[in-house]
Amino acid sequence: AMTVQVDQVSGAGTVIATGDYVDVIVGITGDHFPVITVNQQDNTIQPVAGLNATSVKVLLQGVQVLGTLLPPPTAAQQQQQQQQPQASGQPAQQQQTSLNGQQEIVMLAVTPQQAEVIKYAQLDGSITLVLRSPDDFRDEAGNPVIPPTDPTSGVILKTLVDQYGVLPPQLVETVLPARVRQ
């Protein structure tokens, strides 16, 4: 098992629970993933400035959650929980979810290779966990199944522009006024 720390944005609102399945996505940008070019004069490699060096990819799919850790509730949260009636069939954790910047530790069942992939992503990128539907892991009769891996291509700015119609940045030229001479 390996743990990852997520927040409400990167961890499906911190409602990930023991027994759930998640996909692990990495986003790498900036200095960690430079765009480079080869100088034709001396064959040196040089970073290209001004280009978007962001890359996003689903790394692992269908990873089982072995457990989660949330910080203990504050006194105000405990008082609020006691005052609100609980909806039938709804866990208190889900009922009380609000945008408060909460962190969650998620323990994932992984192989040694998957652990290496996650650790690299933690060091040089940012990890997001995508909560999967429990139906993905059961057949029509309710028996457990391992779903096939859904091939993904990963995404860079060029992918968004070419395949999704995102408008690329446009160069805007302006004429600067001449300096006023004194």
In short, what is this structure?
By secondary structure, the protein is α+β, with helices and mostly antiparallel strands. It has helices at 75-83, 92-95, 112-124, 157-164; strands at 2-7, 21-28, 36-38, 45-47, 55-69, 103-108, 126-131.
Strand content: 25-35%
* Coarse morphology: extended
Low-confidence stretches: none
Note the total helix count.
Answer: 4
Report the helical percentage: 10-25%
The residue-averaged pLDDT reads 83
Order of SSEs: EEEEEHHEHEH
Q: Quick one: how many beta strands?
A: 7
Structural class: alpha+beta
Distance between the termini: 71 Å
Biggest β-sheet strands, sense, barrel: 5 strands, antiparallel
Task: Identify the strand order in the major beta sheet.
Answer: 1-6-5-2-7
What radius of gyration results from the CA coordinates?
23 Å
